[in-house]
UniProtKB/TrEMBL annotation:
Quaternary structure note: Homodimer.
UniProt protein name: Phosphate-specific transport system accessory protein PhoU
NCBIfam families tied to this protein: phoU_full (TIGR02135)
Gene: phoU
Keyword Cytoplasm attributed: yes
Length: 240
């Protein structure tokens, strides 16, 4: 449920200021949609052995980088022109932080695409693709929900994403143990399985960045920084 009492961005006397804040939010969500698609396509390229799709994802990283710079510039200009205070300043600062997380998600998609191309060239699919699909679906859901929480200023949904991060870590550790066991049973699979392990690591990092975005949503809505704090403490902040 959206925090209605805190959903007050865009109520300024200056319509121009309202438009600038709305444009900042829109561009952030547009970039979020792009990196979400990049991760999804990178996973599909890996699982389907689709090297050309992997190349498309790698090429798309430049667009992600360009969007990050454009949004940073837009946010900086808002601070310089409007000198925002309180909730507006929290929004602008949070976007600057979150856009860096989105750019890093794009980097992780590029890494996955690189391994997708490598494994497609090698031909034989190694073990671990089931785990890739499972963890990939999980972190993509987290990223999608984090963007939705931002769009709706929903601190409760953001808190749920923070709680999911621990589950992703557990799934990643379990998948890693499975692949290590398989490599010990047949050393011929070491190289290919190591590539899959790097993909799993990249997906786990996507989950971390989704969690970072969720933490910044709570900062926007509640005005308290919940980074580096236990989930239980964040829960108290959201409940206030």
């Amino acid at each position: 449920m959206t925090d209605k009492k805190d959903d007050v961005y865009g109520d300024h006397i200056s319509n121009k200021f309202n438009d600038e804040l709305m444009e900042l939010k829109t561009e952030f969500l547009r970039m979020g949609g792009l990196v979400e698609s990049q991760v999804d396509q990178a996973i599909q390229a890996l699982i389907n052995g689709d090297g050309p799709l992997g190349e498309e994802v790698r090429a798309g990283d430049k667009r992600v980088d360009r969007m990050e710079m454009d949004i940073d510039e837009e946010a900086t200009l808002i601070i310089a022109r409007r000198q925002p205070t309180a909730r507006d300043l929290r929004l602008v600062i949070a976007v600057i932080k979150m856009v860096a997380d989105l750019e890093r998600v794009g980097d992780e998609a590029k890494k996955i695409a690189k391994f997708a191309i490598k494994l497609a060239d090698e031909g034989q699919a190694p073990r671990g693709y089931l785990e890739v699909r499972h963890i990939g679906d999980h972190v993509l859901s987290m990223l999608r929900d984090a963007l939705d929480a931002f769009a709706r200023l929903d601190s409760n949904q953001a808190l749920r994403i923070m709680k999911e991060d621990k589950r992703v870590d557990e799934e990643y550790q379990a998948a890693t143990r499975t692949l290590l066991t398989f490599m010990m049973e047949d050393t011929r699979n070491i190289s290919r399985c190591m590539s899959v392990m790097w993909v799993l690591r990249a997906l786990e990092r996507v989950g971390d960045h989704a969690c970072n975005i969720a933490e910044n949503v709570i900062f926007m809505v509640k005005g308290e920084d919940v980074r580096h704090t236990p989930v239980e403490e964040a829960e108290k902040v959201v409940g206030r």
